Amino acid sequence: MHHSPRCPLASYTGHPRSSLGMSVEDGGMPGLGRPRQARWTLMLLLSTAMYGAHAPLLALCHVDGRVPFRPSSAVLLTELTKLLLCAFSLLVGWQAWPQGTPPWRQAAPFALSALLYGANNNLVIYLQRYMDPSTYQVLSNLKIGSTALFYCLCLRHRLSARQGLALLLLMAAGACYAAGGLRDPGNTLSGPPSAAAAGRMPLHITPLGLLLLILYCLISGLSSVYTELLMKRQRLPLALQNLFLYTFGVLLNLGLHAGGGPGPGLLEGFSGWAALVVLSQALNGLLMSAVMKHGSSITRLFVVSCSLVVNAVLSAALLRLQLTAAFFLATLLIGLAVRLYYGSR
């Protein structure tokens, strides 16, 4: 049987691949009983809702048109919350601690995951200097393609023509929504809230911005697939793997926060809405780690894309933004993509 070219990361750890992860790509998890399948579906729906609620909740935190706290504070507190939740689940016995000596050596590979995620989070901020928000929103959908590329190379899973078409539709849906899915009734511009906030900034991207965007998309795909590879090959409880990952995440973001120069204190400017943003992002991170271990990076892409619908509906309800024809077209494309990828062959 012919295999796709092997990614160097595929030999990073020594355990065989998890059979659970691949069954999702065949349209669900047929090996699970109905109750477990229902829990899996509920988990995906919750994650979709939390992803979609992030931007509207963040907008509700604004004071005088700006976020009153340091973004690095929110990221650090989110990582710390995830770490504490993982430690709590191990302490109370929700997940069994592995027998014998704690496998601390298996923690080291997660440092690279934390570094990749940290680099990507900072690139998002840095990219805004070299392009307008609307251009970023549209072109950042290329990370769907980069994730699929690394998924095929590193996990040696070949996508069918039908699945490839589904991912192309997913990219088109994201670009369509970003280009004009929402409109501020008081503004002639159509686009996501970030575009409205940018006022009449002209569409532009510099050559350096394009190179950084390509780097961002590649790192995004690599970080997702690399973390999936680690979680599936290590025969460790998910909570322990998360403990490793978020320990490095806390240390990295603590250093970034401390090195960020003078600014508001760690909790300065936080409100109830801000606390809800941190908690929802922490819970969603834990849900996504379960998707990576028992599902796949491709499943994660569909969750993120479907969350655009939640984002739009909440933005319309809470922020009084109007849905446009582009939103309904994007929703149709997402539905077609889900049907093509996970529907019966």
UniProtKB/TrEMBL annotation:
<feature type="transmembrane region" description="Helical">
    <location>
        <begin position="238"/>
        <end position="258"/>
    </location>
</feature>
<feature type="transmembrane region" description="Helical">
    <location>
        <begin position="325"/>
        <end position="342"/>
    </location>
</feature>
<feature type="transmembrane region" description="Helical">
    <location>
        <begin position="75"/>
        <end position="97"/>
    </location>
</feature>
<comment type="similarity">
    <text>Belongs to the nucleotide-sugar transporter family. SLC35A subfamily.</text>
</comment>
<protein>
    <submittedName>
        <fullName>Probable UDP-sugar transporter protein SLC35A4</fullName>
    </submittedName>
</protein>
<keyword id="KW-0762">Sugar transport</keyword>
<feature type="transmembrane region" description="Helical">
    <location>
        <begin position="165"/>
        <end position="183"/>
    </location>
</feature>
<dbReference type="Pfam" id="PF04142">
    <property type="entry name" value="Nuc_sug_transp"/>
</dbReference>
<feature type="transmembrane region" description="Helical">
    <location>
        <begin position="270"/>
        <end position="289"/>
    </location>
</feature>
<dbReference type="GO" id="GO:0015165">
    <property type="term" value="F:pyrimidine nucleotide-sugar transmembrane transporter activity"/>
</dbReference>
<feature type="transmembrane region" description="Helical">
    <location>
        <begin position="301"/>
        <end position="319"/>
    </location>
</feature>
<dbReference type="InterPro" id="IPR037185">
    <property type="entry name" value="EmrE-like"/>
</dbReference>
<keyword id="KW-0813">Transport</keyword>
<feature type="transmembrane region" description="Helical">
    <location>
        <begin position="109"/>
        <end position="127"/>
    </location>
</feature>
<feature type="transmembrane region" description="Helical">
    <location>
        <begin position="40"/>
        <end position="63"/>
    </location>
</feature>
<keyword id="KW-1133">Transmembrane helix</keyword>
<dbReference type="InterPro" id="IPR007271">
    <property type="entry name" value="Nuc_sug_transpt"/>
</dbReference>
<keyword id="KW-0812">Transmembrane</keyword>
<feature type="transmembrane region" description="Helical">
    <location>
        <begin position="203"/>
        <end position="226"/>
    </location>
</feature>
<feature type="region of interest" description="Disordered">
    <location>
        <begin position="1"/>
        <end position="30"/>
    </location>
</feature>
<keyword id="KW-0472">Membrane</keyword>
<dbReference type="GO" id="GO:0000139">
    <property type="term" value="C:Golgi membrane"/>
</dbReference>
